[in-house]
Amino acid sequence: MIFKNLSYFKAVFFASLKADLEYRANFFMRVLIDVFWYLSQILTFEIIFNYSPNIGQWALPQMRFFLGVLFVIDALYTLLFHDNIDRISENIRKGELDFILTKPASSQFLISLQRVSTAVISNLLLSLAWLIWASLQLQTLTVTRMLILLITIPFSLLLIYSLRFLIATLSLIFIRAENVQYLWYQIYRLGMRPDQIYPSWLRRILFTILPVGLVASLPTQIILGFVSDWYLLLVIGLSYLFFKASQWFWAYALKHYSSASS
Amino acid sequence: MSCANFLNLRFSFFKLALKTQMEYRLNYITDIFIQPTLTGWIEVLLWKGVFLFSATATIGGFDQSYYFAYALWAAFVSRISANWMYEFKMIEEIETGSINSILVKPISFFEYYLYQFLGYKIGTAWISLIIPIGISYYFNLPFDPIHFLWALLLIALYLVFIFTISFIVATTAFHLTKVNSITIAKNLALWIFTGELIPIDLFPSSIKNIFLYLPFSSAVYLPVAFITKRVDFDTFKVGFISTSISLLLVLLVANAYWRFSLKKYVGTGA
Known about the structure:
Order of helices and strands of chain A: HHEEHHHHHHHHHHH
Helix content of chain A: over 70%
Radius of gyration of chain B: 20 Å
Oligomer: heterodimer
Strand content of chain B: under 5%
Structural class of chain B: mainly alpha
C-alpha cells in the first residue's frame, strides 16, 4: 500500500512539474507570492523589535528562528497540500469528487494529493536558507536540539494538514463555504505568533482544541529550551489524534454526501 | 439613451451585486462581520502582548489604545478596500470566453463590474463599519466621527483606483492563460504597502515617506490613521492627491490596454 501510494505521488509530482512549467509566468508569480508572504511576516517582527528589544523571553534572534521553523513547515504544507485542500470546495461543486470516489484508493489521500505545487520548491529552499541563517545567529543551539526539529517538522506538518482538512470537509456539508474556509487563515494566523503573547485561556485553546500553537510555536520553544522536552509528546500525540479525527470526519461527511447535483 | 435609463441601468448592476451576495448568507456574514472581527481581534492580541511583555508604555510615540484602535479599524477597512472577488470573476470571464455575453450588453465590461463592485462594497461597508464604531465608543478608543466621514470619501476614491488596477490585471488574461497568481501576489504586496499589516509610521522614515506618497496608503493607513487621530489633515490629504493622480494614470493605461487586448481577442476564450 505504501509503495503504491509512493509511486502515485511520484507520478503526481512529475505531472505537476510539467504542468507548472507550461505556465512559466504563473510559476514565477507563485515564487513571488511566497516571497511577499515571508517578507510581511519578517517585517512585522523586525519593526516591532526595532521599538522593543524583548517581548517576554523572545529576543530578535529567537523570533527569527521561530519564523524560520514556521516558514519551513508552511512551505512543506504549501508544496504538498495547500492547493489541493483549497480546491476541495470546488471539487465538490463541480462534481469532480464523484470521479475521485470511484477510484480504488483512499479518497482522502487522492483529494489531498491531486497535484504538487512544484513552484514552492524554490520557496522551501528560501525558507531553509532563512532557518539555517537564523540558527547560526543562536549560538546556544546544539546539534541535539536541531535533531528535535527534524522530529517535530513531520508531526507539525501532519497537524496543520489535519486541521485544514477538517475545516475543508465542511464543504461537503455546506457546499458553498469559501468564506468559512477563510476562517482557517485567521486561526492559522494565531499560530504564526509565539503563543506567550496571548492570554492564558487562549493559549490553552491553541494547545488543545485548535492546536495551531503546536505547529511552530511550541516546537521552537522546545528547541530553544524555553519549555521541557516532554512537550514533544504533546506535539506527536495531538498530531496523531487530529489526523485520525480528519479521517473520521471525512468518512462521516461522505456518508451525508449526495453528489454534486444535490 | 435618456439620463434616467442611463442611471437605472447602472444602478441595476449596483443592486445585482448585493442580491448575488445575499444568496449565500453564511458567506456574506463571514465576509462582513466574522472575518474582520477575527482579524482585528488577533492583531489587538499581538499589540496587547507586545505592550505587556516589553518594558515600554509607548511605541513610536503612541500608547496601546492607539494600536488597538488601529488594529481594529485596519481589519475592517482593509476588507472594504481589497478586491479579490471581482478581479477573479473578471479573469474567469476572459479565460473561459463567457465575456462574450457581456460584450454584447449595452454597457462596457469595465462599468458592468465597476458598478457591481461598488454596489457590493458600499452596501456592505455601512453595515460592517458599525462594529468598529461601537467598539471604539465602548472601549473609549481614539476615534473622530468627522474624520471618519472624510476617511470614507478617501476609501471610495481608492475603490475606483483599485478596481481599475484589477481591470488591468484581468485584461492580462487575454494574453496569459493563468493570471490568478498575479492577483494573489499583488494583494500580498498591498498587504505591506497599504499599512494593513503594521502602521506605516513605524517604518524607517525613508521607507515611510515612499509608502505614504504611494496611492496604496489610501487603502488602509491614511483613512485608519486619520479616524484614530494618528495623523493630521495635512498628511491625510496627501492620500487624496496621490490617489487622484494615480487614478487618472491607471484609467489611461486601462483604456489603452483594453483596446489593444480586445483587438487580439477572437471570441473563443483566451
